[in-house]
Amino acid sequence: MASLIDLRRRIRSIKNTQQITRAMKMVATARLRRAQDKILAARPYAEELRRVVVNLSSRMGDRTHPLLVEREEKKVLVAVVTGDKGLCGSFNSNVIRRAGEVLAEKEDCELLLLGRRGYEFYKRRPTPIRKSYTSLFTKVTFEQASEIATDVSGAFTAREYDAVYVVYNQFVSVIQQHLTVERLLPLRSADNRQAEQAAGGEYVYEPSPSDILSEVVGGYLASQVYRILLDSQAAEHAARMTAMDSATKNAGELIDSLTLTYNRSRQTAITTELIEVVSGAQALEG
After folding, report:
1. What's the fold here for domain 31-235?
2. Tell me: the pLDDT tens digits for 203-228?
3. pTM of the predicted protein model
């Protein structure tokens, strides 16, 4: 059995850890509110821009934009979106595990790593890394998303890759994040139902739909990357808040258990001392 001094030290150590986890939970909660507001504001814009692209692509006839061209997937770029920090439960490990499954399904792959945790995991692995961004989530900006989108679209247009997939955690709610694999390129054009809906109204375009689409597609791709980064950021804060809340509760339960053990040990030690004193007194009297 541990000594009383050891128990006191352990209880004090766990209390200090509990203070840290409680503070981290409060910080994550505050950051989550801001991140949640950003992603909820970005989603409607990204969705409406997607509808514009679908509408325009359905009216181009035989012509099509290079980012809409589907090819046989001989070489694939897989973007893995993780966090820059840990202490967020299984947030990063789930993304890395799912990315490994995607890599196993494809024959020839390269990686685009968005987040420090993904880079630290894959830098010692044999899969080639095209580029890595290790400080994205300090402050997610549209300029960063636009830079990533420009690089990826340029590589796809140059036929360096036949498809681009992204693996990330989509923010659903404070207690739920949905692990998502999404095809970023080629952009999905209108299916039959969407084409019929798009053709339901007649529009006069100036300039032509193809010219407008060429201008819109770049902004659309950047908005999708921006939405994905904001989704991942909000999901990370939610995962960290949940993990730190659980750690704080577990620390409290452990402190209660150790305190009970300490009190029992202390009571046993006092009782033993009293018995020794009484026994000694009786021996002197005898």
Report:
1. Pyruvate Kinase; Chain: A, domain 1 (3.40.1380)
2. 666 666 666 777 778 788 999 999 99
3. 0.83
